[in-house]
Amino acid sequence: MAEHEHVRVAVIGSGFGGLGAAVRLRREGITDFVVLERASSVGGTWRDNSYPGCACDVPSHLYSFSFAPNPDWPRTFSGQEHIRAYLEHVTDTFGLRPHIRFDSEVKRMTWDGDALRWRIETTAGDLTADVVVSATGPLSDPKIPDIPGLDSFPGKVFHSARWDHDYDLTGKCVAVIGTGASAIQIVPSIQPRVGRLTLFQRTPAWVMPRIDREISGLERRLHRTLPVTAKARRGLLWGIRELQVQAFTKHPNELGFVEQLAKRNMARAIKDPALRAKLTPDYRIGCKRILLSSTYYPALAQSNVDVVASGLTEVRGSTLVAADGTEAEVDAIVFGTGFHVTDMPIAERVVGADGRTLAEHWKDGMQALRGAAAAGFPNWMTIIGPNTGLGNSSMILMIESQLNYMADYLRQLDVLGGRAALDARPSAVHAWNRRVQERMKRTVWNTGGCTSWYLDASGRNTTIWPGTTSEFRRATRRVDLAEYQVLRPSGGKDGAEREPAAKTREAAA
């Protein structure tokens, strides 16, 4: 990285969000940008999560960019290796590699109000940027609970997102901590080769069958020859999920029928009533993410698997102790305990106009205007920000909506002319967040009777979008300049700039 390099846009991260932002910038005619990536390759969470059985729980044709369809998905639900290969393909197809700075972890981003630019410190050198697009993603920093005695455990310990492929689990006594989306894929993948597997389950999950199959050569040829067929397939998958949203957001009681289907799925594989009781949730389905697997329950029914219906509370040497007193002696511990979602570490590295970090601004809960802009952080926006997550559909749809917003944001800076920055008005941020939280009150994520990773430390849902993806796309189609303050190089906030800027926009539209 060149010393004192300056770019118009700095994108942080090279997962779906970062690569999507890079493609959109090029399509907007912007080439003066860099993508700062802390690792040595692209892929984000699909690079980091390489554990056995890792796959997506969203259908392949929906879990891809609309502008980069892939007619050659091998399965209806793609594995990690296929998704990572797809992201590498996108990188090369759209000529993104010259823009990517690998092994460049961002240590700090500080807003310079006099120069109207961001000063960015990375492990590979420093640079400045007019605009920062943070696409680090919520599933990027693993969370391992603080368990007394864990530091003195003599065996192997690793998180699902940092899988140690050099460690052979064959014949070992292995503990898996957690029952989320990663754990239900890991358990059936390692169960046949470990000596004994102990699953520490703090809360059981609702699990539906995963109807996965190989996509035939005929289907692939059809999608290659007639791209409209792949588009129709994607549209059907999207439409079905849009129709499901009301049950999650307005009528959670309608999900009782789905619970019965999930119970039947369990009963087919779990014949032991005691084990079935352990695995049956006591909250409304959908409150936590509904998991998809046709192999999880059969694996738990095997003779070399123990299910401890209690969380891990202590480690004594090689012995793991659950909250209910159950003990298990193991050789290795695999944490499937998720990520720092509502307390994203990147927020501690972003310093705004008032000298405080984004983490300090968000100490009472994350909030951002239209999921993208935070008050006091001019010309900074995030992809997959607060309340943009989904409980039943593809996050790529939300990412593309935010890319529309990013593109219009940059257009408005051009319309304003000269040196200018946009800072989200606190009143606009609060108004947006108030509307989102009001809609959240009746959703299954808030009323379903569970504690999930969607909720922050105060119990507020700062993660999920309480509506359809089409609603979010409409809300992020264009930037409303009335929701922003215009900053000029003098450092003052010139509220009078708003009305002329809006008029200029109308003239240019």
From TrEMBL:
Keywords: FAD, Flavoprotein, Monooxygenase, Oxidoreductase. Residues 494-509 have a biased composition (Basic and acidic residues). Residues 488-509 are annotated as: Disordered. Its EC number is 1.14.13.-. It comes from the Bacteria. GO terms for molecular function: monooxygenase activity. Gene3D superfamilies: FAD/NAD(P)-binding domain. Belongs to the FAD-binding monooxygenase family. This is Flavin-containing monooxygenase. It comes from Streptomyces thermocoprophilus. The lineage of its organism: Bacteria, Bacillati, Actinomycetota, Actinomycetes, Kitasatosporales.
